[in-house]
Design a protein that fits this description.
By secondary structure, this protein is of the alpha/beta class. The protein is built from 14 helices and 13 strands.
């Protein structure tokens, strides 16, 4: 267990000892009007731009300029198989086999595609288990899939709710719901790291219990990919989806990713939405052939992908391959632990960290609830150089990203927050 200390000197010393500190210089850090770096703690909404991104995209623009359509075959990175250039590195980030991982579409589109295949209500097995406080888009997607099957979400959607007076779910309560409802559950679909509380769920435990009762188990890993060591294959999940613009730093609205466990790779009779890019690569341009799905996750592709977005992902994954997710996870635990220590050191009873204190139950995010405060507090710390984000009702989310955030960033954030709380009489 790390023993943290107060004071700026400690933060600077931790940065000097940090083997990952070299990666900060590989990103563009937004500046304040004074020229000083902002304290960017918003990687859980949009990661910063790697300096290599521009060069990566420019290469594809140059090849488009010089080759036109022939860039599909003669570009430096030929466009025809371009998504394959991302597969191995992405698989290492999420802990899947290359055949189980593909970069395609955006998160909610991929979630819908997965549910077309893996939410197949039949007989009494029609229900879906989801968090009551799931990200709204996930809930909308699940509800609309149920409605497509003419199933009333009000009757068949089971929402996991924390105990009275608590903000996070208990693992034993999740298990109890699965065991109670399992025989009638077609799908368990949970965000592996909750967007609001920052709680990280034990995917292997949930999957094991779900499979015991014959349920399909999928996860939205938007706040986990590139942040925690997911180990999707070993956890045994049936499918997972994620976006790449948060911790994976691939640009606003960038493509997402999808995992399908290899047990489903060649399953006959599996219903899916079909598109030509998921068709057998050898006969894809035959144009007259019946659909012949590529085994594995690639078989869920629909259209040829946007290369410029993939170029940004490629640049980011090269950094991840250098840093390695296991090293990043260690630093994330240390950074959030340090932030928690400094926040708990403040002389007040009005700050509540609603994210679990157990490092195994959280990622890089801490969600802070300040009693008797409103969004004006958030706006004030923003004006002082902190980029975090606000989520209704009443939470400031801060995420120290191990690739580019420093211990000094954490120290500066808490000092700025402390100053504002003191001026409001919340902290003495």
């Amino acid at each position: 267990m790390t023993t943290y200390k107060e004071g700026k000197d400690y933060a600077l010393e931790m940065d000097r000892q940090d083997p990952l500190s070299r990666f900060r210089s590989q990103f563009y850090i937004p500046k304040m009007e004074t020229g000083e770096d902002v304290v960017y703690l918003c990687g859980n909404s949009l990661g910063l731009q790697p300096k290599s991104t521009s060069e990566s995209i420019q290469q594809e623009l140059l090849d488009w300029k010089n080759y036109g359509v022939e860039g599909h075959f003669h570009a430096k990175n030929p466009w025809m198989p371009y998504h394959e250039f991302l597969t191995d590195a992405m698989a290492r980030v999420v802990g899947g086999k290359p055949s189980e991982v593909v970069v395609m579409n955006t998160l909610t589109v991929n979630l819908h595609l997965m549910m077309v295949s893996f939410y197949r209500p039949k007989g009494k097995r029609v229900k879906v288990i989801i968090e009551s406080d799931a990200f709204p888009s996930d809930k909308y997607a699940v509800q609309s899939q149920m409605e497509m099957h003419e199933i009333d979400p009000k009757k068949a959607l089971i929402e996991l709710t924390p105990r009275k007076g608590e903000r996070c779910l208990r693992a034993e309560d999740i298990e109890e719901v699965i065991r109670k409802e399992g025989e009638e559950v077609a799908l368990i679909m949970i965000g592996n790291t909750n967007y609001y509380t920052g709680q990280y769920f034990d995917m292997q435990r949930i999957t094991s219990v779900g499979h015991e009762y014959g349920c399909i188990v999928g996860f939205d890993c938007a706040h986990g990919a590139g942040n925690v060591d997911l180990q999707l294959h070993d956890c045994g999940v049936d499918f997972a989806v994620w976006c790449n613009y948060k911790y994976l730093n691939s640009g606003p609205g960038s493509l997402g990713g999808c995992f399908v466990h290899e047990r489903h790779a060649k399953k006959n009779g599996l219903i899916r939405f079909k598109g030509w890019w998921g068709h057998n690569k050898e006969t894809r341009f035959g144009m007259r052939d019946d659909f012949d799905a590529i085994p594995g996750a690639e078989g869920w592709q629909l259209s040829n992908p946007p290369i410029l977005s993939m170029a940004a992902i490629k640049a980011s994954l090269e950094i991840y391959d250098d840093a390695k997710i296991s090293n990043l996870r260690k630093k994330a635990v240390s950074l959030t632990g340090y932030m928690e220590y400094l926040l708990n050191s403040l002389d007040n009873r009005n700050i509540e960290i609603i994210t679990p204190s157990d490092p195994d139950q959280r990622g890089s995010q801490l969600s802070i609830f300040v009693k008797n405060a409103d969004k004006k507090l958030f706006q004030q710390i923003t004006s002082k150089g902190v980029m975090a984000d606000w989520r209704e009702p009443g939470v400031i989310r801060v995420s120290a990203v191990p690739l580019y955030n420093s211990y000094e960033d954490v120290y500066r954030f808490v000092e700025i927050l402390k100053g504002e709380l003191t001026s409001r009489g919340i902290v003495k």
